[in-house]
């Protein structure tokens, strides 16, 4: 299921903010009209690939903030588990020092609505409700514009860590398109030529590149 060019699903959920404070009513709606958002899902606290990604987003946080982009993480763990992990030093497998919000999707409804829950409920032959797959979030990343519309999404399986630099590149591409009205060709990065979305524009770009 693709959410691109659709409104991002709304939610209100607990979260840990500033690495230390639990709030009960976190929502992405606070950013509407103000900031783009990188909203990413990861499978579980206290795991292996997840801290590398969470810390990598923190290392690049100033770059996102420079572009007026909020970074928000989410998993199906509780807010208390988030907070406990945030208090574990990095050299012990923790994520101490992370300051952007981490949302607690205990009901799994946020992951489900964003299409990244790693399985689904079904009934077995005895008529019992069971879960098929993994009841945790896949590694989904969503770029949401200031109007609350999803402009980019990518979803990785559990073992496949994502590229944080590419999340920045897509932010740059969206902001370039919005500012200049040009489109961004393959492998575009900030500072490279973009092009007009016309036959002539494509020809001109290809002749120069």
UniProtKB/TrEMBL annotation:
Domain Thioredoxin per the UniProt entry, residue ranges: 2-176
GO CC entries: cytosol
Domain of life according to the entry: Bacteria
Broad class of where this protein is predominantly found: cytoplasm
Keywords: Cytoplasm, Disulfide bond, Oxidoreductase, Peroxidase, Redox-active center
Protein localization: Cytoplasm
Signal peptide: none
Keyword S-adenosyl-L-methionine: no
Record-level Gene Ontology MF annotations: thioredoxin peroxidase activity
Active site per the UniProt annotation: 50 (cysteine sulfenic acid (-soh) intermediate)
GO biological process: cell redox homeostasis; cellular response to stress; hydrogen peroxide catabolic process; response to oxidative stress
Pfam family name, one: AhpC-TSA
Function description: Thiol-specific peroxidase that catalyzes the reduction of hydrogen peroxide and organic hydroperoxides to water and alcohols, respectively. Plays a role in cell protection against oxidative stress by detoxifying peroxides.
Database matches in PANTHER family: THIOREDOXIN PEROXIDASE, THIOREDOXIN-DEPENDENT PEROXIDE REDUCTASE, MITOCHONDRIAL
UniProt record similarity statement: Belongs to the peroxiredoxin family. AhpC/Prx1 subfamily.
Name of protein: Thioredoxin peroxidase
Lineage of the organism: Bacteria, Pseudomonadati, Bacteroidota, Cytophagia, Cytophagales
């Amino acid at each position: 299921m693709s959410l691109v060019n659709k409104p991002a699903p709304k939610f209100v959920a607990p979260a840990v903010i500033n690495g230390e404070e639990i709030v009960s009513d976190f929502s992405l709606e606070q950013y509407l009209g103000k900031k783009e958002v990188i909203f990413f899902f990861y499978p579980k606290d206290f795991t292996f690939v997840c801290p590398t990604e969470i810390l990598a987003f923190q290392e690049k946080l100033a770059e996102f903030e420079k572009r007026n982009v909020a970074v928000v993480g989410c998993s199906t763990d509780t807010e208390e588990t988030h907070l406990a992990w945030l208090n574990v030093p990095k050299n012990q497998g923790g994520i101490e020092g992370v300051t952007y919000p981490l949302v607690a999707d205990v009901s799994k409804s946020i992951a489900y609505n964003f299409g990244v829950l790693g399985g689904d409920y079904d009934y077995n032959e005895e008529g019992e409700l069971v879960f098929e797959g993994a009841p945790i979030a896949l590694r989904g990343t969503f770029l949401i514009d200031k109007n609350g519309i999803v402009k980019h999404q990518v979803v990785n399986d559990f073992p496949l860590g994502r590229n944080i630099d590419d999340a920045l590149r897509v932010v740059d591409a969206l902001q370039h398109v919005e500012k200049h009205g040009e489109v961004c060709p393959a492998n575009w990065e900030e500072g490279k030529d973009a092009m007009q979305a016309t036959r002539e524009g494509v020809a001109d770009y290809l002749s120069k590149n």
